[in-house]
Amino acid sequence: MNNDTAIKEMVMEKYSAIASQDTAKNKASCCGATSCCTPDSSTLMADDYSRLEGYNPDADLGLGCGIPTEYAKIKEGDTVIDLGSGAGNDAFVARRATGEKGKVIGIDFSPAMIAKARANVEKLGFNNIEFRQGDIENIPVSDKTANVVISNCVLNLAPNKKAVFSEIFRVLKSRGHFSISDIVLEGPLPEKIKTAAEFYAGCVSGALQKDEYLQLIHLAGFNGISLLKEKKITIPDDILLQYISPEELEELKRTGTGIYSITVYAEKPCCDEDSTCC
Prior knowledge:
- 32% of the residues lie in helices and 21% in strands.
- With 278 residues, the protein is α/β, with parallel strands linked by helices.
- The model is unreliable at 27-43 (pLDDT under 50).
């Protein structure tokens, strides 16, 4: 999976199919990847949203690896952009926090997901939430639009993560901030896992090393970078053995490679190259 175009085509195909699956099937997988995980690993990555104000069960496809809105500091009247918005799960929770005076813009690569999210908006009758089809490496939003950017288990799917963080910086207002939940690694993955489409769509093989991920945020110009939540993800041995040999599995355990769900927060400075000071 080393060709950017091929990766994006695979993501489009996988997540368009996921849009038509029921929530129970998606929650029994890694980020919805149909062959990555097993039914008994339904809490492997996804967190429980049902207690949150603004939660809409029809929008919850069980695809996340955290709850970024918990740390997003969304205020009434804010404009929020949700990257990789899917059927709208995080966007609806964010909309509850912004209130009637705020606005939420969801961005998703899959037209099938956009259609599902728009149908959910129509049922609820909201007029301050919209969903746009687009690539998060080139966000279809004007400069300095958002107070807050959120994303849930999506940036790992983007081949050019440096471009994504640059785009997040661009669309945020001065003093804006983001809260992103994502998958990162500590240690090397076997090549057979890194090249497996199922593990890419399952948010694992496309993940960066944690230090590299945090460094990209710093290089994009953000400050106040904080790792607010971290949870180790364990892929069951029987799943790994579909892709690697028993000997390779033992070597993977010996190296101590870790797969982690993290939620990271960072702020755009008051001043940047294209603006005057606040």
